[in-house]
Amino acid sequence: xxxxxxxxxxxxxxxxxxxxxxxxxxxxxxxxxxxxxxxxxxxxxxxxxxxxxxxxxxxxxxxxxxxxxxxxxxxxxxxxxxxxxxxxxxxxxxxxxxxxxxxxxxxxxxxxxxxxxxxxxxxxxxxxxxxxxxxxxxxxxxxxxxxxxxxxxxxxxxxxxxxxxxxxxxxxxxxxxxxxxxxxxxxxxxxxxxxxxxxxxxxxxxxxxxxxxxxxxxxxxxxxxxxxxxxxxxxxxxxxxxxxxxxxxxxxxxxxxxxxxxxxxxxxxxxxxx
Length: 274
Hints:
Layout: H1 10-16, H2 21-25, H3 33-48, H4 54-63, H5 70-80, E1 116-126, E2 129-138, E3 144-150, H6 156-169, E4 174-177, H7 181-184, H8 186-194, E5 198-201, H9 211-223, H10 233-249, H11 261-266
Parallel strand pairs: 1-4, 4-5
Antiparallel strand pairs: 1-2, 2-3
Helix pairs in contact: 3-5, 4-5
């Protein structure tokens, strides 16, 4: 807990607690219970139908008994950092000032740990409010290498997750992200460049380019998040921590020959099929 009266500078306290300063100073705008309910429904719809835009989500909500105008759905989707996932013309970039890198993984054979890492951000509903979750995954083993939660979309929590993964697991050859402003920012790409890691970015709107992280979100939400109602960010962080420990060490994957991500990551030679 940060204590503003403590003689230790707030900046140093945040660093010791691994807490972005933006999280400390950010005062979130209150969200009504009605909008939180709608956001939870939109999240479920997007997870099931990632290609749905605001019009089709409006129709889906109407089928669930909720009449909501499209502008409100668009506003809530922006708050949740959600967009319809389908190939479309690249008319604009997430941030015109940031460089976007080519996608390097098409027809690329991935046959060992730490060859390719990937990351993404998702929305996590709570009993009163919501947070954002970022996770970094090893593509070959599906192991979650690091993760962070934040109540803002500031790039700092993504950078913190990246730095933890690099410190704990070494460096990958290629790092894949989408074109979100957090990942195209110089704060994030600068860390990758300093470690001589090749940067790959999904085609705009192509969820399939980062399919393993999208599958992770489905597992996290149906096996953990939707079964809980976190009362606080601290509770969300603790419960997600237990889930990711289970996911890495106990949850067997059919695509990994029914092995766990940890066993494939640390003993890759035993794996028989990709």
